[in-house]
Amino acid sequence: TLIAAYPPNEYEAWSYDHRRFQKWGNEGIVATCVFEKPDTGNFRVLLDSGFDLCQTPLVEFHAGRGRMVFCQLDVTDRCGTDPVATLLFRRLLEEGLQDHPPCTGQLAVLPGPAVSAAFEEIPAALREVKAPAELGGVAAVALDASQEPAPLLREAVLAHARAGGTVLLLCRAGTEPRLGWLPFPVAVQERSLWRAVVRQPGGLLSGLSNADFFWRTPVSFKIFSDLPAAAGVPLEPAILAVVSLDRGRLILLPAWAKSDVPPDRTLRRAGAKRARFYCTLLTHLGVAVAGAPDLAKPLSREGGFFSRTPQTSDFDPDYHVQW
Predict the structure, then answer these.
(1) H or E segment at 192?
(2) Does 51 or 42 have the greater pLDDT score?
(3) Which of 23, 153, 157, 166 would suit a FRET pair with 293, their CA atoms being 20 to 30 Å apart?
(4) Is 187 exposed, middle or buried (0-12, 13-18, 19+ CB in 10 A)?
(5) What percentage of the chain reaches a pLDDT higher than 70?
(6) β-pair partners for 62
(7) Which residues contact residue 255 at a Cβ distance below 8 angstroms, ignoring those fewer than 6 apart?
(8) Distance (Å, rounded) from C-alpha 242 to C-alpha 235?
(9) Helix or strand run (H / E) with residue 156
(10) Is 196 within 8 Å of 144 (Cβ atoms)?
(11) If pLDDT is split at 50, 70 and 90, which confidence band does 91 have?
(12) pLDDT for residue 310
Protein backbone atom coordinates (compact mmCIF):
# COMPACT_ATOMS: atom_id res chain seq x y z
CA THR A 1 0.00 0.00 0.00
CA LEU A 2 1.13 3.56 -0.60
CA ILE A 3 0.47 4.78 2.95
CA ALA A 4 -0.25 3.07 6.24
CA ALA A 5 -3.77 1.63 6.47
CA TYR A 6 -4.46 3.26 9.84
CA PRO A 7 -1.80 5.96 10.46
CA PRO A 8 -1.69 7.75 13.84
CA ASN A 9 -2.97 10.98 12.30
CA GLU A 10 -5.59 9.92 9.76
CA TYR A 11 -6.44 13.50 8.78
CA GLU A 12 -2.84 14.17 7.79
CA ALA A 13 -2.64 10.94 5.81
CA TRP A 14 -5.81 11.53 3.79
CA SER A 15 -5.06 15.21 3.17
CA TYR A 16 -1.79 14.58 1.30
CA ASP A 17 -1.47 16.67 -1.84
CA HIS A 18 -2.12 14.37 -4.79
CA ARG A 19 1.03 15.67 -6.50
CA ARG A 20 3.05 13.76 -3.89
CA PHE A 21 2.15 10.54 -5.72
CA GLN A 22 1.87 11.77 -9.29
CA LYS A 23 5.12 10.09 -10.39
CA TRP A 24 4.30 6.76 -8.77
CA GLY A 25 3.83 4.04 -11.37
CA ASN A 26 4.17 0.32 -11.91
CA GLU A 27 7.70 0.26 -13.33
CA GLY A 28 8.95 -1.31 -10.09
CA ILE A 29 6.79 -4.43 -10.35
CA VAL A 30 8.04 -7.15 -7.99
CA ALA A 31 5.41 -9.83 -8.81
CA THR A 32 3.67 -10.17 -12.16
CA CYS A 33 1.36 -13.10 -11.36
CA VAL A 34 0.24 -13.67 -7.76
CA PHE A 35 -1.74 -16.32 -5.91
CA GLU A 36 -5.10 -16.02 -4.26
CA LYS A 37 -4.57 -16.30 -0.51
CA PRO A 38 -5.33 -19.79 0.83
CA ASP A 39 -8.20 -20.31 3.25
CA THR A 40 -7.64 -23.84 4.56
CA GLY A 41 -4.62 -25.94 5.39
CA ASN A 42 -1.43 -25.45 7.39
CA PHE A 43 -0.12 -22.30 5.74
CA ARG A 44 1.44 -18.95 6.52
CA VAL A 45 1.01 -15.99 4.18
CA LEU A 46 4.33 -14.14 4.07
CA LEU A 47 3.28 -11.22 1.84
CA ASP A 48 -0.08 -9.91 0.71
CA SER A 49 -1.14 -7.82 -2.27
CA GLY A 50 -4.04 -6.88 -4.51
CA PHE A 51 -7.52 -5.54 -3.86
CA ASP A 52 -8.50 -6.04 -0.21
CA LEU A 53 -5.03 -7.63 0.09
CA CYS A 54 -6.67 -10.95 -0.75
CA GLN A 55 -3.74 -12.18 -2.85
CA THR A 56 -0.18 -13.17 -2.09
CA PRO A 57 3.07 -13.56 -4.02
CA LEU A 58 4.72 -15.56 -1.21
CA VAL A 59 3.12 -18.27 0.94
CA GLU A 60 4.43 -21.17 3.00
CA PHE A 61 2.69 -24.52 3.44
CA HIS A 62 3.47 -27.18 6.03
CA ALA A 63 3.29 -30.66 4.52
CA GLY A 64 3.83 -33.58 6.87
CA ARG A 65 7.19 -33.01 8.53
CA GLY A 66 8.38 -30.55 5.87
CA ARG A 67 7.40 -27.27 4.26
CA MET A 68 6.78 -25.87 0.79
CA VAL A 69 7.27 -22.23 -0.16
CA PHE A 70 5.39 -20.90 -3.20
CA CYS A 71 7.09 -17.76 -4.51
CA GLN A 72 5.78 -15.62 -7.37
CA LEU A 73 8.09 -12.70 -6.67
CA ASP A 74 10.23 -11.90 -9.70
CA VAL A 75 13.52 -13.08 -8.20
CA THR A 76 14.63 -15.69 -10.75
CA ASP A 77 16.26 -13.30 -13.21
CA ARG A 78 17.15 -10.67 -10.60
CA CYS A 79 19.00 -12.68 -7.96
CA GLY A 80 22.63 -11.63 -7.94
CA THR A 81 22.04 -8.26 -9.59
CA ASP A 82 19.10 -6.75 -7.69
CA PRO A 83 20.09 -6.35 -4.01
CA VAL A 84 16.51 -6.72 -2.75
CA ALA A 85 15.85 -9.87 -4.78
CA THR A 86 19.20 -11.28 -3.65
CA LEU A 87 18.46 -10.55 0.01
CA LEU A 88 15.01 -12.13 -0.26
CA PHE A 89 16.38 -15.29 -1.89
CA ARG A 90 19.08 -15.60 0.78
CA ARG A 91 16.55 -15.20 3.57
CA LEU A 92 14.28 -17.82 2.00
CA LEU A 93 17.19 -20.27 2.00
CA GLU A 94 18.13 -19.40 5.58
CA GLU A 95 14.56 -19.85 6.77
CA GLY A 96 14.29 -23.14 4.90
CA LEU A 97 17.24 -24.48 6.87
CA GLN A 98 15.58 -23.71 10.19
CA ASP A 99 13.95 -26.56 12.09
CA HIS A 100 10.20 -26.05 12.55
CA PRO A 101 7.93 -28.44 14.45
CA PRO A 102 5.59 -30.30 12.09
CA CYS A 103 1.85 -29.67 12.00
CA THR A 104 0.81 -33.23 12.76
CA GLY A 105 -0.91 -32.84 16.14
CA GLN A 106 -4.53 -33.00 17.25
CA LEU A 107 -6.72 -30.38 18.92
CA ALA A 108 -8.62 -31.77 21.91
CA VAL A 109 -12.11 -30.22 22.01
CA LEU A 110 -14.62 -30.24 24.83
CA PRO A 111 -18.00 -30.26 23.06
CA GLY A 112 -19.99 -27.03 23.06
CA PRO A 113 -21.83 -24.64 20.71
CA ALA A 114 -18.90 -22.20 20.54
CA VAL A 115 -16.47 -24.96 19.56
CA SER A 116 -18.84 -26.20 16.85
CA ALA A 117 -19.31 -22.65 15.52
CA ALA A 118 -15.60 -21.83 15.38
CA PHE A 119 -14.48 -24.99 13.60
CA GLU A 120 -17.43 -25.41 11.25
CA GLU A 121 -16.01 -26.46 7.87
CA ILE A 122 -12.44 -26.14 9.20
CA PRO A 123 -10.88 -29.52 8.32
CA ALA A 124 -8.69 -29.70 11.42
CA ALA A 125 -7.62 -32.82 13.29
CA LEU A 126 -10.04 -32.64 16.23
CA ARG A 127 -10.32 -35.12 19.08
CA GLU A 128 -13.45 -34.89 21.22
CA VAL A 129 -12.68 -35.45 24.89
CA LYS A 130 -14.93 -35.92 27.92
CA ALA A 131 -12.52 -37.21 30.55
CA PRO A 132 -9.19 -35.88 31.96
CA ALA A 133 -7.25 -38.96 30.78
CA GLU A 134 -8.09 -38.12 27.16
CA LEU A 135 -6.08 -34.87 27.18
CA GLY A 136 -2.71 -36.56 26.81
CA GLY A 137 -0.63 -36.19 23.67
CA VAL A 138 -2.60 -33.35 22.03
CA ALA A 139 -1.19 -30.14 20.55
CA ALA A 140 -3.76 -27.90 22.32
CA VAL A 141 -7.15 -27.96 24.05
CA ALA A 142 -10.25 -25.95 23.05
CA LEU A 143 -13.45 -25.43 25.06
CA ASP A 144 -16.61 -23.34 25.08
CA ALA A 145 -16.18 -20.37 27.43
CA SER A 146 -19.93 -20.34 28.15
CA GLN A 147 -19.78 -23.83 29.70
CA GLU A 148 -17.80 -24.32 32.90
CA PRO A 149 -16.06 -27.72 32.86
CA ALA A 150 -16.67 -30.30 35.54
CA PRO A 151 -14.22 -29.96 38.48
CA LEU A 152 -11.92 -32.85 37.51
CA LEU A 153 -11.83 -31.85 33.86
CA ARG A 154 -11.29 -28.22 34.80
CA GLU A 155 -8.24 -29.12 36.89
CA ALA A 156 -6.89 -31.28 34.05
CA VAL A 157 -7.25 -28.39 31.57
CA LEU A 158 -5.38 -25.99 33.87
CA ALA A 159 -2.71 -28.63 34.53
CA HIS A 160 -2.27 -29.03 30.77
CA ALA A 161 -1.57 -25.29 30.47
CA ARG A 162 0.76 -25.18 33.48
CA ALA A 163 2.80 -28.03 32.02
CA GLY A 164 3.48 -26.03 28.84
CA GLY A 165 0.31 -26.62 26.82
CA THR A 166 -2.10 -24.21 25.16
CA VAL A 167 -5.79 -23.88 26.05
CA LEU A 168 -8.22 -22.05 23.73
CA LEU A 169 -11.27 -20.46 25.38
CA LEU A 170 -13.79 -19.77 22.61
CA CYS A 171 -16.26 -16.97 23.35
CA ARG A 172 -19.40 -16.85 21.22
CA ALA A 173 -21.31 -13.60 20.73
CA GLY A 174 -24.78 -13.73 22.23
CA THR A 175 -23.76 -16.10 25.03
CA GLU A 176 -22.73 -15.43 28.62
CA PRO A 177 -19.14 -16.51 29.34
CA ARG A 178 -18.52 -18.42 32.57
CA LEU A 179 -14.88 -17.70 33.33
CA GLY A 180 -14.93 -17.47 37.13
CA TRP A 181 -12.90 -20.69 37.37
CA LEU A 182 -9.88 -19.14 35.65
CA PRO A 183 -6.89 -18.29 37.89
CA PHE A 184 -6.87 -14.66 36.71
CA PRO A 185 -9.40 -11.82 36.36
CA VAL A 186 -11.06 -10.97 33.06
CA ALA A 187 -14.00 -8.76 32.09
CA VAL A 188 -15.99 -9.42 28.92
CA GLN A 189 -18.31 -7.17 26.95
CA GLU A 190 -19.89 -7.52 23.52
CA ARG A 191 -19.52 -5.09 20.62
CA SER A 192 -20.28 -4.97 16.94
CA LEU A 193 -17.11 -4.43 14.90
CA TRP A 194 -16.25 -4.05 11.23
CA ARG A 195 -12.50 -4.19 11.75
CA ALA A 196 -9.75 -4.88 14.27
CA VAL A 197 -6.18 -3.54 14.08
CA VAL A 198 -3.03 -5.59 14.60
CA ARG A 199 -1.01 -3.93 17.38
CA GLN A 200 1.41 -6.80 18.13
CA PRO A 201 2.37 -8.48 14.82
CA GLY A 202 4.13 -11.82 14.75
CA GLY A 203 3.61 -14.67 17.17
CA LEU A 204 0.16 -16.20 16.80
CA LEU A 205 -0.68 -13.56 14.18
CA SER A 206 2.33 -14.28 11.98
CA GLY A 207 0.84 -14.73 8.51
CA LEU A 208 -2.12 -12.42 9.21
CA SER A 209 -2.39 -8.68 8.56
CA ASN A 210 -4.86 -5.84 9.08
CA ALA A 211 -6.59 -6.94 5.88
CA ASP A 212 -7.58 -10.24 7.55
CA PHE A 213 -9.42 -8.32 10.27
CA PHE A 214 -11.33 -5.97 7.96
CA TRP A 215 -14.75 -7.55 7.37
CA ARG A 216 -16.64 -4.83 5.46
CA THR A 217 -19.73 -5.65 7.50
CA PRO A 218 -20.43 -5.45 11.27
CA VAL A 219 -19.79 -8.67 13.20
CA SER A 220 -20.45 -9.16 16.93
CA PHE A 221 -17.46 -10.11 19.07
CA LYS A 222 -16.56 -10.43 22.74
CA ILE A 223 -14.02 -7.83 23.93
CA PHE A 224 -11.67 -8.73 26.82
CA SER A 225 -10.42 -6.29 29.44
CA ASP A 226 -9.13 -6.08 33.06
CA LEU A 227 -6.61 -8.80 32.24
CA PRO A 228 -3.31 -9.42 34.08
CA ALA A 229 -0.70 -6.78 33.32
CA ALA A 230 1.52 -9.26 31.49
CA ALA A 231 -1.26 -10.49 29.18
CA GLY A 232 -0.71 -10.15 25.46
CA VAL A 233 -3.40 -8.26 23.53
CA PRO A 234 -2.30 -8.39 19.86
CA LEU A 235 -5.51 -6.90 18.41
CA GLU A 236 -7.40 -3.68 19.10
CA PRO A 237 -10.20 -3.91 20.13
CA ALA A 238 -9.11 -6.85 22.27
CA ILE A 239 -10.97 -9.75 20.62
CA LEU A 240 -7.89 -11.91 21.25
CA ALA A 241 -5.90 -12.17 24.50
CA VAL A 242 -3.02 -14.43 25.55
CA VAL A 243 -2.40 -15.05 29.26
CA SER A 244 0.63 -17.00 30.45
CA LEU A 245 0.12 -19.69 33.07
CA ASP A 246 3.39 -21.14 34.39
CA ARG A 247 5.01 -22.78 31.33
CA GLY A 248 1.90 -22.64 29.15
CA ARG A 249 -0.83 -20.21 28.16
CA LEU A 250 -4.56 -19.65 27.90
CA ILE A 251 -5.90 -17.88 24.81
CA LEU A 252 -9.22 -16.03 24.84
CA LEU A 253 -10.56 -15.75 21.30
CA PRO A 254 -13.81 -15.37 19.36
CA ALA A 255 -16.00 -18.24 18.21
CA TRP A 256 -16.81 -16.78 14.81
CA ALA A 257 -19.37 -18.90 12.96
CA LYS A 258 -19.76 -19.14 9.22
CA SER A 259 -23.35 -17.89 9.61
CA ASP A 260 -22.05 -14.63 11.12
CA VAL A 261 -21.09 -13.50 7.62
CA PRO A 262 -24.14 -12.22 5.67
CA PRO A 263 -24.97 -14.20 2.50
CA ASP A 264 -24.11 -11.48 0.00
CA ARG A 265 -21.10 -10.49 -2.08
CA THR A 266 -18.95 -10.10 1.05
CA LEU A 267 -19.35 -13.79 1.91
CA ARG A 268 -16.42 -15.04 -0.15
CA ARG A 269 -13.78 -12.70 1.25
CA ALA A 270 -15.07 -12.25 4.82
CA GLY A 271 -15.77 -15.97 5.10
CA ALA A 272 -12.29 -16.68 3.78
CA LYS A 273 -10.81 -14.39 6.43
CA ARG A 274 -12.65 -16.30 9.14
CA ALA A 275 -11.25 -19.62 7.91
CA ARG A 276 -7.78 -18.11 7.42
CA PHE A 277 -7.72 -16.84 11.01
CA TYR A 278 -8.46 -20.25 12.53
CA CYS A 279 -6.20 -22.19 10.14
CA THR A 280 -3.26 -19.85 10.75
CA LEU A 281 -3.77 -20.08 14.52
CA LEU A 282 -3.94 -23.89 14.41
CA THR A 283 -0.81 -23.98 12.25
CA HIS A 284 1.13 -22.07 14.91
CA LEU A 285 -0.14 -24.55 17.51
CA GLY A 286 1.01 -27.54 15.45
CA VAL A 287 -2.50 -28.86 14.72
CA ALA A 288 -2.94 -30.63 11.39
CA VAL A 289 -5.40 -29.00 8.98
CA ALA A 290 -6.30 -30.67 5.68
CA GLY A 291 -5.87 -28.61 2.52
CA ALA A 292 -2.34 -29.10 1.21
CA PRO A 293 -1.92 -28.12 -2.47
CA ASP A 294 -2.47 -30.92 -4.97
CA LEU A 295 0.62 -30.73 -7.17
CA ALA A 296 -0.22 -33.90 -9.13
CA LYS A 297 -3.52 -32.75 -10.63
CA PRO A 298 -3.63 -31.71 -14.29
CA LEU A 299 -3.94 -28.02 -15.11
CA SER A 300 -7.59 -27.05 -15.52
CA ARG A 301 -8.60 -24.68 -18.31
CA GLU A 302 -12.30 -24.65 -17.57
CA GLY A 303 -13.69 -21.15 -17.96
CA GLY A 304 -10.46 -19.82 -19.45
CA PHE A 305 -6.75 -20.07 -18.88
CA PHE A 306 -5.70 -19.98 -15.23
CA SER A 307 -9.24 -19.58 -13.92
CA ARG A 308 -11.59 -21.55 -11.71
CA THR A 309 -15.32 -21.93 -12.16
CA PRO A 310 -16.87 -21.78 -9.66
CA GLN A 311 -14.39 -20.20 -7.27
CA THR A 312 -13.39 -22.49 -4.41
CA SER A 313 -11.61 -21.94 -1.13
CA ASP A 314 -8.74 -24.38 -1.62
CA PHE A 315 -5.31 -23.11 -2.57
CA ASP A 316 -4.52 -23.73 -6.22
CA PRO A 317 -0.92 -22.88 -7.19
CA ASP A 318 -1.90 -23.05 -10.88
CA TYR A 319 -4.45 -20.25 -10.48
CA HIS A 320 -2.85 -16.83 -10.83
CA VAL A 321 -4.07 -13.26 -10.77
CA GLN A 322 -2.13 -11.05 -13.19
CA TRP A 323 -1.63 -7.36 -12.61
Answers:
(1) strand 187-195
(2) 42
(3) 166
(4) exposed
(5) 82
(6) 67
(7) 113, 114, 115, 117, 118, 144, 145, 170, 171, 172, 173
(8) 11
(9) helix 151-162
(10) no
(11) very high
(12) 40
Q: Is 80 left (phi over 0), alpha (psi -120 to 50) or beta?
A: left
Residue 311 has pLDDT above 80, yes or no: no
Q: How much is the average pLDDT of 315-322?
A: 66
Q: What strands, in cross-sheet order, belong to the sheet with 241-245?
A: 126-128, 107-109, 140-144, 166-171, 248-254, 241-245
Cα–Cα distance for residue pair 26/320, rounded to 1 Å:
19
Output the DSSP codes for 208-233. Answer: --GGGGEEEEEEEEEEEES--TT-B-
8 A C-beta contact, residue 168 and residue 143? yes
Q: Which amino acid is at 245?
A: L
Q: Tell me the C-alpha distance between 155 and 164, whole Å.
A: 15
How many Cα atoms sit within 13 Å of 13 on the Cβ side?
Answer: 10
Spatial separation of the C-alpha atoms in residues 98 and 96, rounded to whole Å: 5
Q: Give ∠ CA 179-180-184 in degrees, rounded to 5.
A: 90
Residue 297 CA, chain-centre distance (Å), reads 27
